[in-house]
Structure formats: structure tokens, C-alpha cells
Amino acid sequence: MRIAIFTSFLLAPLAALAAPAQEASGTLRTPPTRALDTRQVVTPAPCAPLNPPPTEEQMKARFDKFATAFLVTKNLTEAFSYISSSYKQHRAGVPDGPEFVLDILGPMWPNVTITDPRWTSNAEYGWLNYKTSAFGEIVDKYKFEAGCITEHWDEGEVYPTD
């Protein structure tokens, strides 16, 4: 059975471990670590909205980093750093927020074979299209707000042709 909820994050690769996040007070805090199976997955601080929002070219560069982290290096800590804490899942039965998807993907993502990855984006949306050893072909659609991924769809999505 194709379970695309596992691909819902979404949502990127630079750091194997997240750097300490800065609180509003200026103090540093270490992101929590989730114990999943025998591995440790570092939960990054959620994406902070950018002000001013990025230009379309800057957003495309951000989405490229997310897609590379998620599909190529399979670094969930980096990928999830592009996802907002208010992340909305447009799939029945899947809770909103990035935590659920991170908990599901964390133990399995390193062992999933990903082939034929491609991605594209514009100023408001980004799409991933790839094949997996576990779930078949996937098309994920993401919405951006102020430089962060805020929404995700993965049922019946079509990769853009233009």
C-alpha cells in the first residue's frame, strides 16, 4: 500500500545536527532529540518567517536546498528546518505540524531508495516528484509563506509541465 504520508516532509539537508536555536530573549537552546528506533533524529527549530519575504529567485534557492536535503542527502534535520511550526497537512487523518511526519520518516528515511528525483518551484509553491522503494512514485506539493513551507499536499498531485 502506498503510504504517501511518509513523504510529507518534507520537508532538507545541510547539517546532520541542528545548531542551537536562539530564543526571543537571546539565550540559546538546544533543539530536542527524538529517540526513534535505535537512531537519534534531531528536531530542528521551526522555520522562522523572513521579513521581508524572499524574492522568487531566493525562494527557488531555498526550495532547492530543501529538496536536496530531503531527497538527495536525506538529511531530515536540515529539510525540516524549512518547515513552519504551523505546517498544515492536506491529507485526512494526518495531524498538522511537522512532528508527526518527522516521527514517521525518522527511522525509515535513510533506508528508502529514492530514484529519479526532480523538483520545481515558483514564488508561492514547490513540487517534488520522485520514486521510492517503499511507496512508489510520489508528487508532493508545498506552499510557501515568508520563506517557510506552510502547507503540503500529496494525494492526486500532478507535477507541473511548464
From TrEMBL:
<feature type="signal peptide">
    <location>
        <begin position="1"/>
        <end position="18"/>
    </location>
</feature>
<protein>
    <submittedName>
        <fullName>Uncharacterized protein</fullName>
    </submittedName>
</protein>
<dbReference type="InterPro" id="IPR032710">
    <property type="entry name" value="NTF2-like_dom_sf"/>
</dbReference>
<keyword id="KW-0732">Signal</keyword>
